[in-house]
Amino acid sequence: MSTELLELTRAIALEAGQLAAQRRREGVEVAATKSSIVDVVTAADREVEELIRARIEAARPQDAILGEEGGASGGTSGITWLVDPIDGTVNYLYGIPHYAVSIAVVEGDPDPAGWTPLAGAVFNPAIDELFTAARDGGAYLGEQRIRVADAVPLEQALIATGFSYDAAIRGEQGALVARLLPHVRDIRRLGTASLDLVGVANGRLNGFYERTLNPWDHAAGELIAREAGAIVKGRGAASPSREFLIAGHPDVVGPLEELLDELGA
Ligand code: IPD
Ligand code: CA
Ligand code: CA
């Protein structure tokens, strides 16, 4: 079943990404703000999500959908789709070619503690990179199988992270980054959590951590990173959650989590 779902996920992500890229070429403006003045949505976010929902509903009317812009719609099949129509909206708004359509299919409710990811696609149409994975089927960039980078000591590790839209939380996150920076090769804030996770999956990054991610930010990238040999988890033995997510080669995640704990993450 995962293979069929993956084919559908891939087809929808490609079509949605092409629409996002076309709207970007035509010009993009802020349509509204959400949780804070810096948390923006464009008309394209909404239009792309509508397209994705229409394609899912046409192909699999019994499935549930949770999308960032359109919320939750119930289903009866026990399968849920997690949709981030444009992950990296701020990059998209500014014309930085680092944003993605992120679509995942999971068995169970849209709760990272209980779901089983079945298939996922993360597509950056600006540079035509499509990352995919099906459960137990490996992770791919296009047709190429991908693997997490070999473990390196933390002082040689390139670590990505991201920041919340909430000013108070951003302040804490920035202070933590300042304490982490002397211990690692360097830090990246690339602006698109799904691309951070697939960046771990194909060895562009040694690790990634973030607080306050939503299920649609990480569902697809989480499966792709795991299928590429990474660990993706929350604190200790917990599943990834809004509270915390960390990803990387198992021998990088261990020391990184320990260090983040020491630094007061
Ligand atoms: C955001 C991006 C960003 C991450 C934020 C997310 P959006 O998603 O993934 O990298 O740091 O936590 O909210 O709003 O661009 O879909
Ligand atoms: Ca997002
Ligand atoms: Ca988004």
TrEMBL record:
Keywords tagged on the record: Hydrolase, Magnesium, Metal-binding
Superkingdom, taxonomy of origin: Bacteria
Gene3D superfamilies: 3.40.190.80, Fructose-1,6-Bisphosphatase, subunit A, domain 1
Enzyme class (EC, first level): hydrolase
EC id: 3.1.3.25
Alphabetized Pfam families for the sequence: Inositol_P (PF00459)
InterPro entries in the record: IMPase, Inositol_monoP_metal-BS, Inositol_monophosphatase-like, Inositol_monophosphatase_CS
Statement: the UniProt record of this protein carries the keyword Metal-binding: yes
Needed co-factor(s): Mg(2+)
Catalytic reaction equation(s): a myo-inositol phosphate + H2O = myo-inositol + phosphate
Family: Belongs to the inositol monophosphatase superfamily.
Listed name of the protein: Inositol-1-monophosphatase
Source species: Homoserinibacter gongjuensis
